[in-house]
């Protein structure tokens, strides 16, 4: 007689977490219990609240994660940190990422405070990015729009100025749409370059008293200028940020990096998926890691769609474009056939769309904070 063996699923674990006081409990649940709903959406476990007690029932592995998340939320509530459903999503992602950083530690790291607003990293990679800026002299922040790479660098620059670690801040971007031939644009020199530099001014207004900015600029303590204006200078005791670096040529990148003087720090930010250089020119940001990767005191930090802190759709858009670009690259490779030659039925002539592109070094996919 045959014997049937029944396999039983592992039994659920039930764990209780007691919140120390009623005020903290209200902060944990959110307006209309929106934070509790976000917790329930993030996990398969059953999460019930009664009084000041959470009861979590589910698999042992997931229950442990939920308990840890609730404990991290309690720490945030005690510190007065504002928590939203998006915050919970980011915390879930942090708990699933390798590394010893606690979500509460990441989300309570204050970079800069101004007029009641505190600028903090909002993801694990953002925290690692700002920590790297502290440790290294030259840092490259590479990632898609909305990941805070320029905004956080500017906050670190303003903080360094306030702490008298540097004497001035220099913010620069390539005026690529005009080919840096600004004489062809109407208006004064200020009118010509202002549209390219406006995002940097906007970020400054978030971080400083607006009345103080013209005085600091008049004194040369803060300088906002096109990249072409950096040529021939040596920048000492400065915090220098190059934004939109994907729109620099390799020659411009070399020119900029060699402006570094004593007591200065450089942060270069850009998105290698959004190169606007005319005529298929090579981006200096795409080639730079191959050149500088072995030099001490230079670091490359990558942010991805997981670090986007704008509307959640922005991260999904970034991922969708990444998948589309990968499919297009694969399709072009199939049309060329083995060895890059003509495939059956194809034409030997290759148009611009099929031209080989510069490899995107270190690309891993894929700001409220600006770029």
Structural overview:
This protein has 371 residues and is α/β, with parallel strands linked by helices. The chain is 40% helix and 15% strand. The protein contains 12 helices and 11 strands. The strands form 3 sheets. The chain has a 6-stranded parallel β-sheet, with helices on both faces. The chain has a 3-stranded antiparallel β-sheet with strand order 1-3-2, with helices on one face. α1 crosses α3, α2 packs parallel to α4 and α6 (124-135) packs across α7 (149-162). The radius of gyration is 25 Å and the shape is globular. The termini are far apart. Mean pLDDT is 83; it is low at 1-9 and 341-368.
Sheet with most strands: 6 strands, parallel
Spans of at least 5 consecutive residues with low confidence: 1-9, 341-368
**Order of the strands making up the biggest sheet:** 8-7-9-10-6-11
Measured distance between first and last alpha carbons: 71 Å
- Percentage of residues in strands: 5-15%
N-to-C order of helices and strands: EHHEEHHHEEHEHEHHEEHEHEH
Tell me the radius of gyration: 25 Å
The share of residues in helices is 25-40%
Q: Give the strand tally.
A: 11
Number of helices: 12
Indicate the structural class.
Answer: alpha/beta
The average pLDDT is 83
List keywords for this structure.
six-stranded parallel sheet, three-stranded antiparallel sheet, alpha/beta, single chain, 371 residues, disordered N terminus
Short characterization:
By secondary structure, this protein is α/β, with parallel strands linked by helices.
Furnish the topology, listing elements before pairings.
Layout: E1 13-18, H1 22-29, H2 34-42, E2 46-50, E3 53-58, H3 60-79, H4 85-95, H5 103-107, E4 112-114, E5 117-119, H6 124-135, E6 138-142, H7 149-162, E7 168-173, H8 189-207, H9 212-218, E8 222-226, E9 238-242, H10 250-257, E10 265-270, H11 284-292, E11 298-302, H12 312-336
Parallel strand pairs: 6-10, 6-11, 7-8, 7-9, 9-10
Antiparallel strand pairs: 1-3, 2-3, 4-5
Helix pairs in contact: 1-3, 2-4, 6-7, 10-11
């Amino acid at each position: 007689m045959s014997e049937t063996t029944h396999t039983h699923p592992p039994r659920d674990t039930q764990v209780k977490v007691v919140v120390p006081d009623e005020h903290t409990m209200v902060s944990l649940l959110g307006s209309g219990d929106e934070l509790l709903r976000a917790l329930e959406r993030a996990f398969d476990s059953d999460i019930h609240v009664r009084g000041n007690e959470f009861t979590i029932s589910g698999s042992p592995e997931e229950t442990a994660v939920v308990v840890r998340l609730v404990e991290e939320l309690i720490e945030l509530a005690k510190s007065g940190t504002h928590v939203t459903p998006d915050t919970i999503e980011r915390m879930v992602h942090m708990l699933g990422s390798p590394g010893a950083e606690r979500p509460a530690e990441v989300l309570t790291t204050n970079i800069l405070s101004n007029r009641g607003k505190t600028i903090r990293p909002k993801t694990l990679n953002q925290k690692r990015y700002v920590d790297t800026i502290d440790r290294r002299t030259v840092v490259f922040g590479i990632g898609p729009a909305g990941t805070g790479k320029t905004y956080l660098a500017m906050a670190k620059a303003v903080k360094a100025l306030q702490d008298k670690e540097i004497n001035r801040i220099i913010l620069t971007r390539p005026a690529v749409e005009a080919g840096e031939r600004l004489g062809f644009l109407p208006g004064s020199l200020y009118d010509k370059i202002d549209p390219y530099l406006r995002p940097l001014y906007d970020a400054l207004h978030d971080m400083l008293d607006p009345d103080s900015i013209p005085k600091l600029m008049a004194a040369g303590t803060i300088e906002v200028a096109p990249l072409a204006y950096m040529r021939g200078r040596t920048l000492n005791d400065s915090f220098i940020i190059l934004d939109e670096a994907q729109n620099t040529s390799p020659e411009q990148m070399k020119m900029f990096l060699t402006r570094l003087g004593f007591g200065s720090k450089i942060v270069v930010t850009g998105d290698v998926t959004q190169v606007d250089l005319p005529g298929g020119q090579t981006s200096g940001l795409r080639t730079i890691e191959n050149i500088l990767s072995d030099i001490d005191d230079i670091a490359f930090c990558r942010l991805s769609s997981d670090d986007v802190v704008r509307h959640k759709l922005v991260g999904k858009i970034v991922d969708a474009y990444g998948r589309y670009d990968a499919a297009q690259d694969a399709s072009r490779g199939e049309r060329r056939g083995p060895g890059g030659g003509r495939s059956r039925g194809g034409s030997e002539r290759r148009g611009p769309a099929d031209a080989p592109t510069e490899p995107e070094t270190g690309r891993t996919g894929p700001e409220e904070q600006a770029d």
